[in-house]
Each structure stands twice: as structure tokens, then as C-alpha cells.
């Protein structure tokens, strides 16, 4: 009987010919070796598919899925359907990781079966200048447990944490990404949070996120705004179980502010409908009043005054 790999690494690929080899090489050069690497060629029109096949011929740990273009969610879902590893990692195909990204973090998960997710360090690399800077440089090694503590961390820090996390596979057993959406990572966050009982913040290993000009998430358009509101409603539906928590109120006011700032992207009917839906979520003004953050209180009550 063939031994299953300990880790499954998922890389969705589309029109990244320029960056793909650096991404794959960073994975193959890991200190840790007990993994399967699933490269999902999402109908890429360039040479990405051929590059994937070349690597698969050189390393038996690599398997390639060639599929018609369906977007990053579709690509990740195709890989999630076939993963064999006890642990899962997601890497974007224009990013790369340090050689120590997996070794200590996988060992930590093995030694602590109650931990569902380990979060590694993140660095942002500017494509134009090549300059690197830490993201969340105040992220210190610690453990988060209990729903409110986990929620506060996830919704305060989650940008890029999907990719910088190493997960127990069971955390993803019932989760698939929504098709055709921007912010698909954030959309599944409530479902993921429901499956997490303990998170460990690690100071070992670095995920290098390449900040490219003209990326999908850097543009502004109506679809992007509507998708952001889909994220808002699924997030608030989950967080309203904890109405007195700082993060629920922070997210609610943040989504209202986002809609106000981008109202010009929507028709009047669309804007009115979305704002009316946001107003149905209760706001706990007492928790804002007794917040330890003076700046947060001032911003919150300023926004409330505008709404009234």
C-alpha cells in the first residue's frame, strides 16, 4: 500500500509564466520533503501548463491538474477534492516561500494535535522595486483559543493568512471556495473559523507575497464592490453570534464605511438595498463606548453620526 504524503500543497496557476518557476523551486527546496505538490493549471494560455508538466517529470511528488479556466476558486477546489495529506497549505503561483517554511511548523502540528492552524511570517515584496517589508511585524509567537480570541485574530489579521497558514486537513473537510468571486478567501473565513479550536502563531518560516501592479484586488469596480458586500453579509451573519465583541462592531462599521466610500460604483437602487441590509445588523454602542481605543471610539461615533 502506497504511503500517503504528510502534507498537501495546493498551487492554482493562471498566466504567471514569469513567476511560476520561482514559486515551484521554493517549494521543492524546502527542508521538509514529505509532501505532494498539486499544481492546478487553470486553462492558462501561456507556457504555464508545459512548465508544470516539466516539473512533474522531474519530481514524483508533483501532480498536475489541467482544466478549463474557472478562476482561482475553481482551481483550489479541484485540488481540495483530491488531497491526501494530513495537513494542507495554499501557495499562490506568483509568490514564494523560505526554505524553512514547513519543517518546524509541520512538526509543531504533529506535536500538538489540538492545534488546527499554524500561521507563519509574511513579507510583502514590491514587484517594481524588489523591496521587501514585513507584514504584521507585530505578530508575536502565541496561541489563540476560544471562539472570541480566534475571531478577533482572524478578522484583524487575516489578509494573506490563508496562504501563510498550514492547516490540519480536517479544518477544510466541508469547505470549498465560491466560484467567480473576488475576495473568495474572506468569504470562506466564517466556515473556517467554525472549524478552528486553536491557532498557533509561529515566528518560523516566511511567505513572500508579490505585490503586483494592476492585480484584480487593486482595481475598483462594481463587481468587486458587490463581492465585498457578499463577504460582509456572510461575515456578519457569523460574527453576530458574538455581538458584544470588538471585532463584530468593528467589521460592521467597517463595511458600512466601505459602502459609503464606494457608492459611486453602484446604482442608486443597488446602494440603497445594500445599505438597508447592513442596517439590519445590531450595533452594540456600549462596547464601543467602553473600548480602550480612543481613536476607534472617535471613528466609530463619527460614522454613527453620519448614518443618523
Entry summary:
By secondary structure, the chain is of the alpha/beta class.
Intertermini distance? 66 Å
How many β strands by DSSP?
10
What shape does the CA trace take? globular
**Residue ranges: pLDDT <50 for 5 or more in a row?**
none
Mean pLDDT: 88
**Beta content:** 15-25%
* Rg from Cα: 20 Å
Sequence of secondary-structure elements: EHEHEHEEHEEEHHEHHEHHHHH
What distinguishing features does this structure have?
308 residues, alpha/beta, ten-stranded mixed beta sheet, 13 helices, 20% strand, globular
Question: Could you walk me through the main structural features you see in this protein, from its secondary elements to its overall organization?
Answer:
The protein is of the alpha/beta class and 308 residues long. Helix 2 (48-58) links the parallel strand 2 (35-42) and strand 3 (62-67). The chain has 13 helices and ten strands. Helix 10 runs antiparallel to helix 11. 42% of the residues lie in helices and 20% in strands. The termini are far apart. Strands 1, 2, 3, 4, 5, 6, 7, 8, 9 and 10 form a ten-stranded mixed β-sheet that branches.
